[in-house]
Prior knowledge:
The complex is a heterodimer of chains A (about 150) and B (about 230). Chain A is α+β, with helices and mostly antiparallel strands. Chain A has two domains: about 30 residues; about 110 residues. In chain A, β3 and β4 form a beta hairpin. The N and C termini of chain A lie far apart (about 70 Å). Chain B is of the alpha+beta class and about 230 residues long. In chain B, β9 and β10 form a beta hairpin. Classes of the chains: A alpha+beta (about 150), B alpha+beta (about 230). The interface between A and B is medium-sized, with 26 and 34 residues.
Amino acid sequence: xxxxxxxxxxxxxIEAIMAIMLIIxxxxxxxxxxxxxxxxxxxxGELEKIGYNxxxxxxxxxxxxxxxxxxxxxxxxxALAASLPTDVYFNLTVYxxxxxxxxxxxxxxxxxRVFTDSTYVASVTYTVPGYQLVYRPRxxxxxxxxx
Amino acid sequence: MFSAVxxxxxxxxxxxxxxxxxIKAGTANLLTVSLANYTQTGNTxxxxxxxxxxxxDVKSAYSGLGVILNYSLASGSYAVYAMTPNYNLGLNxxxxxxxxxxxxxxxxxxNMTSAGLTGYTFASAVFLxxxxxxxxxxxxxxxxxxxxxxxxxxxxxxxxxNLQVNNFVQVNVSDAPRDFALRRYYSITYxxxxxxxxxxxxxxxxxxxxxxxxxxxxIKTVSTSTTIREDxx
Lengths: 147, 233
């Protein structure tokens, strides 16, 4: 009988409910900041980083300027295919500073359908100022999708 | 609070970093191309001309991001990597000494109006240095040859270890061009990576040795040594 009228426990229940709400709110709030691997932003960002790193590595090895400067498109295609993960398809276009396309042949891996059908296409812009003694800038646009 | 969170989540920070890194890498390449041109043609204003064009080209290459590039060329004497190049329009070379170099230096600042970034400043330096550490003339009766031991460095400073025979475009002994053989190895004596040039059939004590180096980046430097030790042993 005494227990039936004891209301001290009610406050504990309310505290517990408030604590649960606080935790749920905190998790929901933190989730606003989170970019998890499943999100499209993460995927696109990762591909951009991969693409930039590959171009930068080729540039550091003095290969990129040579391939572009001497228009060795097949070598450039091979180098990109060897450097990028096998499940990443690419399409590179080289422009001059007036926006004219410079590469006479396709620099790509994967069917063009892959790029049109894919929801997320990452794009990286990289500039090559020149080769050897000559300042002749080229703008490289590298598009990437995961197959 | 919500707008702040949305801003940080959706702002393209990674893309901005990639753009800035790309500009830095491109600028370093531009300095390399300009220094190569200067050392091979003697055009002292090439870096200034190229940087003026680069400013415009970067702006159009990253159109939409509002990239504005400003630069200042190194001028006067700077202490860098234990050398003191006296820059003029960001370029300097010191040749025909046992320690020779070619150097380019510029400071750039990037503004990116789309990201609210202003005054991001970075320095870019490129150089090639060659040092003739020892020249030995072996004067044995049946084996007379000349050994030139030298080191080569680039910015960092980092030793250059991939030079081939064709990078040493000319080796003069007493002002006459000579054929030579090249070896490269890590020298315990000097405690660094060295190149050894051997010129056969040098029958008399040379008065001087000139080595012209054009590295894989097409940057040129010329070292001269008049200190030649005779080895009779």
